[in-house]
Amino acid sequence: MTDADPMQMRLLAAEAVAREAGAIARRRFVDSSFKVGFKGPQDYLTEVDSETEEFISARLHQAFPHDGFIGEETAGRSGRDHGAVWVVDPIDGTANFARGISHFCVSIACVMDGKVEVGVVYDPMRDELFAARRGAGARLNGAAIRPSEAAGLANSSVEVGWNTRAGAAKYLDLLRRVTLWGAAPFRTGSGALGIAYVAAGRRDGYVEQHMNAWDCLAAILLVSEAGGYVSDFLAGEGLTKGNPIIACAPGLKDALVSAVAIEGIAL
Length: 267
Description:
Blueprint: H1 6-31, E1 36-40, E2 43-46, H2 47-63, E3 68-71, E4 84-92, H3 94-98, E5 105-112, E6 115-123, E7 128-133, E8 138-140, E9 143-144, E10 157-160, H4 168-180, E11 184-186, H5 191-199, E12 205-211, H6 213-226, E13 229-230, H7 238-241, E14 243-248, H8 253-260
Parallel strand pairs: 3-4, 10-11, 10-12
Antiparallel strand pairs: 1-2, 4-5, 5-6, 6-7, 7-8, 8-9, 12-14, 13-14
């Protein structure tokens, strides 16, 4: 690797590695040759997650040996004090993957100096590669993408992400608020794809009480570079401990932030 335009080199590497890792996940998904376990209640784990993450880690380390690495399956193993840190979810949507539902993705982000510089989300079942570099826009299979032109919640679709960390009461309250303000709620089981869909105008918004960095950093960059609104996920200890998130079309920012009233996110 040359020193010229290092982030562009990282973007190209992330795109290539995401496609390779996605091919592995797709092959294993199709032949169903994997065991399923749980890390906790409703927290699925397959051997493909760790295998795919190890593949991504090895490829990125080979190309950028001095970069750090934080992955979902090896969270905190290395990298928090490095200049550039890769943040990876090898299979976002593992519950879908484990149950034979073809809605999952590979998510790869690169963070430097507190900012997401590169973000790639690859859906291997649809062969859709979402990619962004800070300051250079967002693309889907090479074509520029933009959020929707939604200007009100009454005609909007909003994905409401769920996990066990925030608790059932907070999730149900979030779902209630989205519905009462007139939006159509969705939940598809992959936060990274849900947020990427906001960037591409397929969804008008995405909200969740808590996400981990590997689940959303790549997609966050997609939304901001596409011209949408996304809350400051990396505030405080977002990189290591996660944060709540709101991502939406620019015309929905005020309405959605007010409607869901997530603690820590204000206009």
